[in-house]
Design a protein that fits this description.
Blueprint lengths: L28 E2 L2 H6 L19 E4 L1 H5 L4 E4 L12 H4 L4 E2 L9 E2 L29 E4 L3 E9 L3 E13 L2 E13 L10 E15 L5 E15 L28 E19 L2 E19 L18 E21 L2 E15 L7 E16 L5 E10 L2 E9 L3 E10 L3 H4 E3 L4 E3 L5 E10 L1 E2 L3 E13 L2 E3 L5 E3 L3 E15 L3 E9 L1 E3 L11 E13 L4 E12 L6 E3 L4 E3 L11 E10 L2 E8 L12 E3 L2 E2 L4 E10 L2
Parallel strand pairs: 1-3
Antiparallel strand pairs: 2-3, 2-6, 4-5, 7-8, 7-38, 8-9, 9-10, 10-11, 11-12, 12-13, 13-14, 14-15, 15-16, 16-17, 17-18, 18-19, 19-22, 20-21, 22-24, 23-24, 24-27, 25-26, 27-28, 27-29, 28-30, 30-31, 31-34, 32-33, 34-35, 35-38, 36-37
C-alpha cells in the first residue's frame, strides 16, 4: 500500500473561489486553525503556488452547531494522537466494560445522565457500535472525498470503514459510508472464521441550503445489523476442573449455539427557515427502529448455562423485542445581541412489541416543552442554560459556565425507566413492573492550567442518584429504595518533555456512599498513561509517534453479563482484580496516509497473575499485534 501511495497524489487544479461553497452565515468559522498548524499541517501548493484539494478544502460540521447558529468548519483529521486505539472501547480511554473483544456487549464504567428523559428501549449493550445520524459529520467539499480505513487485529479481528462525500453544487452535498466488523472469537474459536461479532452497517447523508441562505436541510439515515455469537464466558474451574482461565483459544466456554442480533434503522431530518432578522423556525424528525432477537438451542449443552425457567418454549429460546419511535420537534430560535435563544415543543410516540407480551405491545406518547439560552460574553467567557419538561412530571435542567480558568456544569433530571425494565417476557425471565422515576443531580467542574509545556485539568464530579434501577444478584430487575452519592476527583495532564517526548496521564478516584451505594460497581481507582516519542523525521516527510500505553483499574466486583436479555447484573463472588496492562505502539503519517502498529498486552507473563479479566469469566486480550491504515483521497 505504501509503495502505491504516489498514485494517490492530488493533481494541480486551477485556482478556485474559496467562498464558492460557503454562503454567508452568522458565526461561520474555521475551527482551531492555529491548533492545526501547530501540529505540522501545511497548506498544500503545487509548483505554481496554486492550492490543490486536500484536508483544508474538505471540511465538515455538525448539526448541533447549525441549530445553535454557531457553525464551525473542521478540517480532516490527519493527527496521530491516539490513532492506535482504533476500536470503540479503546477510543473511550477504556472507560467501558465489555466482554474482552471488539463488538461485544459493553456498558459505561461510570454513571452518566441519560440524554433522553423519556422512555427508551433499555437494550443498550451495542449502542457503542451504532453511528447515530443526528451526531454524524456533514460535509462541505470542493472535490470528491473518500476516506478508507482498514484495521487488521491480531487473532483475525478485522474492521473496514469507507466513507465518501461530494458537492453536487456549491450548496448541496451528498455522501455515504459503509462499515463492517469481522471479529473472530478470542476464546474457544472452532475454526479460523469462527466469528464472535459480524456487523454490516451503512449510512446515507445530505445537506442543502438555498441560494438566498434562508433555508437549510440536513438529512441522514443509518442502518446497523450487529450479530454476536455468544460464548457465555469461561466455565469456572470450580464447575469443571478441566477448565482453565488463561488458555484463550483452548478455553472451555458455556455457549456454542446462542446468537444475539441487534438490527437498527434510524432516519433523521433537521431543517430550518429564516423568517427574519434574529428569528428562525426549525423542525426535527426522527424515525427509529430497533429489532432484537436472542436465539439459543436448548437441546444442546448451552442449556446448562441458563436457569431452569422455560416460559415460552422448552426446546428453543427466541427472545424477540421490537422498539419503534417517532419524534417531531418544532421550535423557534435566533440570535439577539450576542445571545442565542431557542424554544420548542416535542412529541415522541413509540411502542415496544413482543409476540410474548400479554397485549403484544406496550405503547407510549410523550409531549415536551423546552428551551435553551446561550450567552457568549467573549471568546473565553460563555454561559448557557437549557431544559425540557416532559408533561406531566419529568424534566431535565442543564447549565454550563465556561471561563479562561474554570468550567462548571450542572444537571438535574427526573427520567423514566426504560421499556425493558418495565415489561419483559423472555424464555428465562419475565416481569411487569411499575417503577418510580429516577432522579439525579450532577455537578462537574474542571480547573484549566495551561503553561508552556504543561497542560493540567484537575476536576471534580459529584453525583446524587435516587430510585436507581438495576439488575440484582438474582438477575432480576429491581429499584433501589435509597440514594447513592458519588465523589469523583480526577486529574488529567499533558506534559511536553523537551522537543520530542510527551506524557499524557489521567487518574480518577471514585467514592460511592449512601443506602444504594452497592448498586453501583465502579473501580475505586482508574488510571491511563501514555509516554511517547513525537516528532517529524526525514525533513518533515514522516510524522512519528512511538511509545507505550499503560492502563489500570483497581479491584472490584464488576457486573456480570447475561446474554439471554442482554444486560449486566450485580454479583459478589468474582473479583475482577487490579492489573496494569501495557501496550506498545508505533503510529506514523506519510503525506495523508496514517499507519499504526500496536502490540497488545506487552507485559503478559511478567506479572504475578497470568492475565487479566474485564468482566467475570471473560479474560482480556492476550499478546498479539494489530495493524491499521487510514488514507484520504481528494479527487
Amino acid at each position: 500500500m505504501l509503495a502505491f501511495q504516489p498514485l494517490f497524489a492530488q493533481r494541480p487544479i486551477p485556482q478556485v473561489n474559496s467562498g464558492a461553497n460557503q454562503g454567508p452565515r452568522q458565526g461561520r468559522q474555521l475551527a482551531d486553525p492555529e491548533e492545526e498548524d501547530a501540529e505540522g499541517r501545511r497548506t498544500l501548493l503545487d509548483d505554481s503556488t496554486k492550492q490543490v484539494y486536500g484536508p483544508k478544502t474538505t471540511l465538515y460540521f455538525f448539526e448541533k452547531a447549525i441549530k445553535r447558529n454557531n457553525l464551525k468548519l473542521y478540517e480532516q483529521d490527519t493527527l496521530l494522537d491516539n490513532f492506535h486505539n482504533y476500536d470503540p472501547v479503546a477510543k473511550s480511554g477504556w472507560k467501558y466494560q465489555d466482554l474482552g473483544n471488539i463488538g461485544s456487549a459493553a456498558k459505561p464504567m461510570y454513571y452518566s445522565v441519560p440524554e433522553v428523559i423519556g422512555v427508551t428501549s433499555g437494550f443498550h449493550a451495542y449502542d457503542l457500535y451504532f453511528r447515530d445520524p443526528s451526531k454524524r459529520k456533514f460535509f462541505d467539499t470542493k472535490s470528491p472525498f473518500t476516506e478508507m480505513s482498514a484495521f487488521f487485529g491480531g487473532g483475525n479481528r478485522n474492521m473496514l470503514d469507507v466513507a465518501f462525500a461530494r458537492n453536487v453544487n456549491p450548496r448541496w452535498n451528498i455522501g455515504l459510508d459503509f462499515n463492517t466488523l469481522r471479529i473472530r472469537k478470542t476464546l474457544n474459536p472452532a475454526q479460523r472464521d469462527d466469528h464472535m461479532t459480524v456487523q454490516n452497517a451503512y449510512g446515507l447523508h445530505t445537506n442543502y441550503r438555498s441560494e438566498n441562505g434562508r433555508y437549510w436541510l440536513l438529512a441522514a439515515f443509518s442502518r446497523m445489523k450487529h450479530v454476536v455469537n455468544e460464548i457465555g464466558g469461561i466455565i469456572p474451574p470450580e464447575v469443571d476442573p478441566n477448565s482453565l482461565y488463561f488458555t484463550y483459544e483452548d478455553a472451555k466456554v458455556w455457549l456454542q449455539n446462542t446468537r444475539a442480533r441487534d438490527l437498527r434503522q434510524d432516519f433523521h431530518l433537521y431543517h430550518e427557515y429564516k423568517l427574519g432578522n434574529g428569528l428562525q423556525f426549525y423542525h426535527v424528525f426522527d424515525r427509529k427502529n430497533q429489532n432484537l432477537v436472542v436465539e439459543s438451542l436448548l437441546d444442546t449443552p448451552d442449556a446448562l448455562f441458563f436457569n431452569s425457567n422455560r416460559f415460552n418454549n422448552p426446546d428453543t429460546t427466541q427472545n424477540k423485542n421490537d422498539f419503534e419511535e417517532w419524534r417531531n420537534e418544532f421550535g423557534l430560535k435566533g440570535t439577539f445581541k450576542g445571545f442565542y435563544y431557542n424554544s420548542f415543543m416535542k412529541l415522541r410516540n413509540g411502542r415496544m412489541e413482543s409476540p410474548f407480551f400479554p397485549n403484544k405491545r406496550s405503547a407510549f406518547n410523550e409531549f415536551y416543552i423546552g428551551g435553551e439560552l446561550i450567552g457568549k460574553i467573549s471568546e473565553k467567557w460563555e454561559v448557557s442554560a437549557d431544559g425540557e419538561y416532559l408533561i406531566p412530571g419529568n424534566f431535565k435542567i442543564h447549565g454550563i459556565f465556561i471561563s479562561p480558568w474554570l468550567d462548571v456544569e450542572y444537571t438535574k433530571a427526573l427520567y423514566k425507566p426504560t421499556s425493558m425494565q418495565q415489561i419483559y417476557y423472555g424464555n428465562h425471565f419475565q416481569w411487569e413492573n411499575n417503577f418510580s422515576d429516577i432522579g439525579v443531580d450532577q455537578v462537574r467542574g474542571s480547573i484549566k492550567v495551561d503553561l508552556e509545556n504543561l497542560r493540567l485539568r484537575p476536576s471534580l464530579t459529584l453525583n446524587r442518584v435516587n430510585n436507581y434501577i438495576y439488575f440484582g444478584e438474582d438477575q432480576l430487575v429491581a429499584q433501589a429504595s435509597g440514594e447513592a452519592f458519588m465523589i469523583m476527583p480526577g486529574f488529567a495532564a499533558n506534559f511536553r518533555l523537551g522537543k520530542k517526548f510527551r506524557l499524557d496521564a489521567e487518574v480518577i478516584f471514585t467514592q460511592v456512599s449512601g443506602e444504594a451505594a452497592d448498586q453501583f460497581r465502579i473501580p475505586k481507582w482508574y488510571g491511563n498513561t501514555r509516554f511517547y516519542f513525537d516528532s517529524p523525521l526525514f525533513n518533515e516527510n514522516v510524522f512519528v509517534q512511538l511509545g507505550v500505553d499503560v492502563r489500570y483499574k483497581s479491584s472490584f466486583f464488576a457486573e456480570a453479563y447475561n446474554p439471554s436479555y442482554q444486560q449486566f447484573y450485580l454479583q459478589n463472588t468474582f473479583n475482577v482484580y487490579g492489573y496494569p496492562v501495557a501496550d506498545i505502539f508505533l503510529d506514523f503519517r506519510i503525506n495523508r496516509t496514517r499507519v499504526l502498529f500496536k502490540y497488545n498486552h506487552l507485559n503478559a507473563g511478567m506479572m504475578s497473575n497470568e492475565g487479566y479479566f474485564v468482566t467475570p469469566d471473560y479474560t482480556g486480550y492476550r499478546s498479539f499485534l494489530d495493524l491499521g491504515i487510514t488514507w484520504y483521497l481528494f479527487d
